[in-house]
Amino acid sequence: MNLSITIQIAKTHLLSKKRQTLVAMLGVTFGIAMFITMISFMQGVNQFLEDSALDASPHVRMYNEVNTQRPALIDQLNRSDSAFNVIYHQKPKEQLSRLKNGFLIARRIEQEPGVLGVSPQLSTQAFYNNGPIQISGTIAGVDIDRENRLYNLKSRLKSGTIEALRSNPNGLIMGNVLARKLNVREGDKVSVTTPTGGTMILRVVGTFGFGIGTVDNTKSYANLSTVQEILQKDASYVTDIHIKMFDPLLALPLGKKLRAIYGYYTEDWATANSAILAGEKIRNVMTFVVSMTLLVVAGFGIYNIMNMNVINKIKDIAILKATGFEGKDIVLIFLLQAVFIGVLGGLLGLLIGFVLSYLLSITPFNAGDFLSIKTFPVIFDLKYYGMGLLFGLITTVLAGYFPSRKASKVDPVSILRG
Amino acid sequence: MEKVLKASHFNKYFTEPDRFQVLKDVTFEVNKGEFLAIVGKSGCGKSTLLYLLSTMDTEYEGTLEINGQTLTGRSQDYLSKFRNEHLGFVFQFHFLLPEFTTLQNVMLPALKLGKYSEKEVEHRAYEKLKMIGMEDHARKLSSKLSGGQQQRVAIARALINDPTIVMGDEPTGNLDKTNTGIVFDIFREIAQENHQTIIAVTHDPDFAAGCDRVIEMSDGIIISSHENQV
């Protein structure tokens, strides 16, 4: 009963000053619309960068770190403090970067919970020759089906098929930028030379594009056995094991665990992409700071208008108090107005924010070869809309509360005596 | 005679700009159904006294008792509820809520009281408007009414909860002769027929002459209290 009367009074106040109500509402609307647009866009950018970086890199990569630093033999044998040993120009020992029992390890890792796929592979530096052109890059010998499971290669092929690689022992799937530089396309031949001197002529059966310059520029896939042949290694020679998880966050403890079990160096995606993750954090902070500023400005707008409203209505407040309305009724009357402005302005802001971010998501954007996007990346997530409405509501309630409290403290005697 | 209001030993000070005693040991009682006028020159403290009686001003010395309840030292919320139920006010400058219709203005205090359903409240508000001859203007915005009409609506609003006491601060101070007459007659009628008590501060000698009793104040003290022979 009491609530309905305060609602009725609040409604009448709002409707009698439509223009003022609208202006206050538009402040919130603008703030929230910008908040939605900015956060959708920023998160879209973050997600896109993260995806494109993580898609092309394994969650955990296991490899044998070749360490050329080693103590001299004589230092190990003769460590007395009195004598000192001088060795000039010590050569590093030859060390293979192979993973011993690589296939067995891969099979075992596959049994671990949460593992999406494991791909043992052989990766090496290589020169690609096509006539007089010589470009350095890397070549990875893989089981193409396993690799496809990890990186969804099929969807990234620009030409050719992965079946063609499987059926052609001398096939090669090449990064599309590298292929363009070499001026080769599907069906053309390329000579591949490894640092150890092995050379082989391979036929390009496909090209792929991850949308990441450093990969598309340098990398090619061949069959594992082919690369082993170029390097003149046996059939169990692998240098890397790439692991993908269902949940990327589980990769971090798994990496540590594998390192402890097998003694090989493991690198997880967070370490490998720490620059991207740091950038993401900074962008997040920026987004929130700007959005909060917008909302605070909107809040001050409401505060001003509600304050004016209270001053304009000071006689009405006095008369309401004289006829028996309590302080809390008065607070409620004005707070309800602020909440109404906040909710309606907020909802309108969500709508406008959605429209703006939709427009942004269909705006053409050419990022060149480095990023594989045609329009601005935007994320539509209900979470942000909920957050926008919540922040909008908190700001308006705060901005409305202080004037309302002032209103409730109006001394009716001083007003009514005139 | 039943007493509805007892004011004993009221002292009131203004502290701005200097400490100044407005009321000096004012003591009086009011009977049920009495039509009382408080008169005096400007600055004699009669309005101040009225606002103390209205419970809106709580900074005073002395004790106030209305309807057998001691109101001195009560919380603001309690006093709000008490005003809502037991007191009605009519001010010099009508003071209706301009965005509301005449009917809504009259209904508000009753809706706040919450004793009757909205339908009943509306019915009662119509009756009060009929009594003061304003039922034709019920649906009009109150800001569209003339001063005299607004003052009559304010009286209807003061009466909606059937208060024990109706207080008026110069209720006719802003009205012409005809409207003053109408307002006075309404007061007279509710005092006689409903046995509601009227306490009005007034400058108007004719208004005062028509009341049951006149209290005259000067410099913060009651200098005379006499009953009129009607």
Automatic annotation (TrEMBL), chain A:
MacB-like periplasmic core domain sequence ranges: 21-241
Domain ABC3 transporter permease C-terminal: 289-412
Location in or out of the cell: Cell membrane
Any one Gene Ontology BP term: lipoprotein localization to outer membrane
InterPro entries: ABC3_permease_C, Lipoprotein-release_system, MacB_PCD
Transmembrane segments: 21-42, 285-305, 330-362, 382-402
Cellular component terms (Gene Ontology): plasma membrane protein complex
Keyword entries, A-Z: Cell membrane, Membrane, Transmembrane, Transmembrane helix
Protein's membrane topology: Multi-pass membrane protein
Entry similarity comment: Belongs to the ABC-4 integral membrane protein family. LolC/E subfamily.
Identification of the protein by name: ABC transporter permease
Organism: Larkinella punicea
From TrEMBL, chain B:
Family: Belongs to the ABC transporter superfamily. Macrolide exporter (TC 3.A.1.122) family.
Residues making up the signal peptide according to the UniProt record: none
Cellular component GO terms held in the UniProt record: membrane protein complex
Gene Ontology molecular functions: ATP binding; ATP hydrolysis activity; transmembrane transporter activity
Keyword Transmembrane helix on entry: no
Pfam family, one: ABC_tran
Protein name according to UniProt: ABC transporter ATP-binding protein
Keyword line: ATP-binding, Nucleotide-binding, Translocase, Transport
Annotated ranges, domain ABC transporter: 5-230
Keyword Cell division on entry: no
SUPFAM superfamilies, A to Z: P-loop containing nucleoside triphosphate hydrolases (SSF52540)
